[in-house]
């Protein structure tokens, strides 16, 4: 595996704010939700860019050498959860933040390991294990968390391919830290994790790239806050023939979050959401939903931090959605691979980079532009033997644990393009497609030249070129 450390686009602004809310209540299913006032506090946007570097360099938030890792994390957990938008923690990447990113990534990995894809199994499309045994079965018995609820989602789409049942599927779980873990972490942590796309209906839902109003707050629909319709469908759809009364993914999550917040009322709490690919979209929708409904509001200008750790996540909504998340104080840390095409979707062309002309004039279609939310940590890696690993969660976590630098990066990258060129030419010759052979060869050569040339084309175009070369190899 090769890796390179890159700086993200400095034009992307990543800021979050907390909104002031007035306690009134309305009901949503089994959840009692406070109603917020329309007033929110805002502030001037600021840019934050991050490079991925070794974590050994000290920062202003480092504690003395005599302080243990756990106790130091307990003192600075709010900074690690993004209360200051991770300022001073991402450049260079602070060891505590790296540790927490990896930890939440492993919680998401557990979703993949426990998901049963055996059609002959009684637990097909659900979790292989019971809630009490999940972490032990996936090798995380010492995580210090207890699973409290499994979450199921239904894709409200018809799939005309393959004979796959249209039913709810296990999508993730809710867990809460134990008393011992809470002392080490400095607070009681409620973690909610989501796996990425696996089944056919989920793939179809991912392709529904039209924007639609989220309308998650019944007291204020906010038509300008729009999200991708497929993700919203997975989050809000009920199964037509629900024999178990589980409700939609949204109803399950809001009910459980409300129950846990009430159970641990009076303690220091955090709500941490983690997901990979499609799962990161659901995590962001839930984070926005919790904040929009005011579930995390404690009164007296106090709120429970809501933080999303997104791995290889796509864009979720438009600029109105991004701005509203920032106003509500939703914190999002996006870990992305520059070679991962999923992170460039949807909105390959209509995105946050094409809303303003000349830095001053907002274009008429700006409300229809997708926009990423949050602070971005950019990685650069691909697997030599399997280019599809550019989106693999295991590759993300491996690089976070053991980053490569310097000459290793250059040597691996040169080997990759050499092997890619040979593989493409070989496959094209076998199927006797001379045009494909020439086109694929040109793509590989052009991508390689753009990585070393002083002339830099737009990141989106370069990403598409890279993706095309990679997918030809599959």
TrEMBL record:
One of its GO terms (biological process) is lipid catabolic process. Its main location: plastid. GO terms for cellular component: chloroplast. Residues 191-348 form the Fungal lipase-type domain. It holds the Pfam family Lipase_3. It comes from the Eukaryota. Belongs to the AB hydrolase superfamily. Lipase family. PANTHER family: PHOSPHOLIPASE A1-IALPHA2, CHLOROPLASTIC (PTHR31403:SF4), PHOSPHOLIPASE A1-IBETA2, CHLOROPLASTIC (PTHR31403). This is Fungal lipase-type domain-containing protein. It comes from Dovyalis caffra.
């Amino acid at each position: 595996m090769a890796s390179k450390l890159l700086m993200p686009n400095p034009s992307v602004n990543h800021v979050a704010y907390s909104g002031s809310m007035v306690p009134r209540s309305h009901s949503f299913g089994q959840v009692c939700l406070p109603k917020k006032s329309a007033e929110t506090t805002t502030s001037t946007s600021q840019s934050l860019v991050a490079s991925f570097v070794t974590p050994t360099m000290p920062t202003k938030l480092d504690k003395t050498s005599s302080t243990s890792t756990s106790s130091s994390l307990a003192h600075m957990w709010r900074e690690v959860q993004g209360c200051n938008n991770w300022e001073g923690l991402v450049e260079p990447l602070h060891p505590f933040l790296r540790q927490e990113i990896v930890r939440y990534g492993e919680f998401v990995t557990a979703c993949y390991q426990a998901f049963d894809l055996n059609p002959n199994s009684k637990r097909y499309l659900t979790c292989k294990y019971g809630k009490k045994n999940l972490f032990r079965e996936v090798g995380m018995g010492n995580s210090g968390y207890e699973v409290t609820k499994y979450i199921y989602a239904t894709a409200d789409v018809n799939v005309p391919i393959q004979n796959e049942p249209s039913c709810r599927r296990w999508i993730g779980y809710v867990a809460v830290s134990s008393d011992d873990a809470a002392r080490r972490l400095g607070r009681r942590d409620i973690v909610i994790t989501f796996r990425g796309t696996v089944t056919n209906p989920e793939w179809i839902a991912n392709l529904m790239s039209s924007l639609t109003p989220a309308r998650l707050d019944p007291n204020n629909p906010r038509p300008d806050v729009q999200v991708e319709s497929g993700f919203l469908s997975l989050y809000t759809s009920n199964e037509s023939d629900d024999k178990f009364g589980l409700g939609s993914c949204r109803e399950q999550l809001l009910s459980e979050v409300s129950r846990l917040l009430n159970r641990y009322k009076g303690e220091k709490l955090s709500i941490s959401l983690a997901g990979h690919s499609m799962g990161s979209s659901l995590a962001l929708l839930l984070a926005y939903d919790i904040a929009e409904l005011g579930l995390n509001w404690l009164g007296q200008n106090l709120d429970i931090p809501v933080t999303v750790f997104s791995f290889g996540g796509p864009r979720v909504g438009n600029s109105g959605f991004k701005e509203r998340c920032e106003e509500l104080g939703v914190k999002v840390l996006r870990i992305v691979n520059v070679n991962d095409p999923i992170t460039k979707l949807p909105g390959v062309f209509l995105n946050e980079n094409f809303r303003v002309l000349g830095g001053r004039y907002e274009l008429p279609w700006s409300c229809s532009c997708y926009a990423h939310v949050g602070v971005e940590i950019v990685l650069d890696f691909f697997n030599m033997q399997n280019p599809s690993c550019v989106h693999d969660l295991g590759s993300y976590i491996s690089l976070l644990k053991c980053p490569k630098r310097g000459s290793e990066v250059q040597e691996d990258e040169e080997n990759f393009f050499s092997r890619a060129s040979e593989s493409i030419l070989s496959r094209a010759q076998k199927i006797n497609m001379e045009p494909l052979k020439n086109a694929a060869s040109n793509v590989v050569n052009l991508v390689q030249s753009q990585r070393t040339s002083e002339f830099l084309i737009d990141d989106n175009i370069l990403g598409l070129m890279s993706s095309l070369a990679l997918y030809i190899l599959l």
